[in-house]
Design a protein that fits this description.
This protein has 14 helices and 16 strands. By secondary structure, it is α+β, with helices and mostly antiparallel strands. Helix 11 (333-348) links the parallel strand 12 (324-330) and strand 13 (353-355). The protein starts with 12 loop residues before the first helix and ends with a helix. Bound molecules: adenosine monophosphate (AMP).
Length: 417
């Protein structure tokens, strides 16, 4: 039997409503904060991710879906959204606009990871990016938008951690100090961390295997200059003023290379996905636009995993199939003919209605109406055809009444919650 590729998922009709709920909430929230959608290609030149995400990251080092096209150019299915957005901002000179550019995206991403609960090879992200301002208020606004979406989805209990990773120069100084501190115990570290120590030492801070060994490492805060500290303090002040709870996690670093200053992450209790608990995160990346060929343009963004949001909603039983307004039950050939124009006029009037396309016996049609989660069954037999009426049955209470056909739409609309 043919099967879907490892690490991918079919989103079945039983689940799609959760996805629609998330996408609706996300798009409305973006609109309220004046973010506009940008759609970029699903594959890009491999070099974009090598330069934009960072050679020494797990994503680029181990997880890219890379292939050669027919002209032997190396292409990669995008593993994250920011690099493509920045490429588009540079290519279309969106940075030249007088105002801050606030952009968002929703779509599939690809990482060749070991699949497990909550971790896929094809997954979906919603992300936002704002270009053109170094104001700490924009960092706070980014966090507020993420927080609003979580609140509207009923996931306000997610824990928010914030940290600063300073500037590239400050991080460089800290990396040297960290390396020197860890050198005496380097041979006790896991093989991943030994490799990271050479190329990307900050990443050892969030290694779960070596957490106990690395408890007393120096903290990055001590290498930060006054400007970086002032920026971080302003972000924390603004986030607090917005009424958003968070903790300062001094060891929070993010997986991708391009962050400067603010880094933040939301997580849910570990048992939601086994060992994984991050649902979204982001930060400031003031150097990336210049790094990818544009002028110096400060920027800040975030990304959430939609599968993970959907899983949290699953656990909370939120966003199940929406109710249909009515299901038609037609008893006999004349009744089938009679419901045809009624179905059309109901749908044109904005009502969600269906009928049993298997034309089963009336009892089975009524059972189908219940399974389809219709509010009403609209029952039509020979008598109703002759009298131009229908029997309108409220399925939850089983109350029924005879209604003239021309009043059906008004009755269904009037009873909408
Ligand atoms: P990142 O781009 O690594 O910061 O990831 C941002 C968010 O995307 C994470 O918090 C997850 O919710 C989601 N995410 C990242 N990788 C995966 C994956 N392999 N499968 C499902 N969701 C993921």
């Amino acid at each position: 039997m043919l099967q879907k590729p490892k690490g991918t998922a079919d989103i079945l009709p039983t689940h799609i409503n959760r996805w629609h709920t998330i996408e609706r909430v996300v798009r409305r929230a973006c609109q309220r904060y004046d973010y506009q959608e940008l759609r970029t290609p699903i594959f890009e030149a491999t070099d974009l991710f090598v330069r934009g995400v960072g050679q020494a990251t797990d994503v680029v080092d181990k997880e890219m879906f890379t292939f050669y096209d027919k002209a032997q150019r190396s292409m990669t299915l995008r593993p994250e959204g920011t690099a493509g957005v920045v490429r588009a901002v540079v290519e279309h000179k969106l940075y030249a606009a007088a105002d801050v550019q606030r952009l968002y995206y929703v779509g599939p991403m690809f990482r060749y990871e070991q699949p497990q609960s909550g971790r896929y090879r094809q997954f979906h992200q919603w992300g936002i990016e704002a270009f053109g301002s170094a104001s700490p208020l924009l960092d706070a606004e980014t966090i507020a938008l993420g927080h609003d979406v979580l609140t509207q989805l009923g996931i306000a209990h997610a824990a928010l951690e914030i940290n600063t990773v300073g500037t590239a120069a400050e991080r460089g100084r800290y990396a040297q100090r960290l390396r020197a501190h860890v050198a005496p115990i380097a041979d006790q570290l896991c093989s991943d961390c030994r490799a990271r120590l050479g190329r990307n030492p900050l990443r050892i801070l969030d290694c779960k295997k070596d957490a106990a060994l690395l408890q007393d490492v120096p903290v990055l805060m001590d290498d930060l200059g006054a400007e970086s500290i002032a920026h971080f303090e302003a972000v924390c002040r603004h986030v607090a003023a917005m009424g958003i709870a968070f903790v300062h996690n001094r060891r929070l670093v993010r997986g991708l290379d391009y962050y400067t200053h603010t880094a933040f992450e939301w997580s849910v209790p570990v048992d939601t996905f086994g060992s994984i608990h991050a649902i979204g995160g982001g930060g400031r990346y003031d150097d990336l636009v210049a790094h990818l060929g544009g002028p110096h343009t400060p920027a800040v963004g975030l990304a959430f995993g939609i599968e993970r949001l959907a899983r949290v909603l699953d656990a909370q039983c939120v966003g199940e199939r929406p109710m249909l307004d009515a299901c038609f039950v037609a008893m006999g050939d004349a009744a089938v003919e009679a419901i045809v124009p009624m179905l059309s006029s109901c749908r044109r009037a904005g009502l969600a209605v269906t009928f049993d396309a298997l034309h089963r016996k009336p009892k089975a049609q009524l059972k189908f109406a219940v399974r389809a989660q219709a509010r009403y069954a609209v029952i039509v037999g020979d008598d109703e055809v002759a009298a131009h009426t229908v029997v309108l049955k409220h399925l939850a209470t089983e109350r029924q009444q005879i209604v003239p056909q021309e009043q059906l739409i008004t009755m269904l609309h009037a009873s909408e919650e």
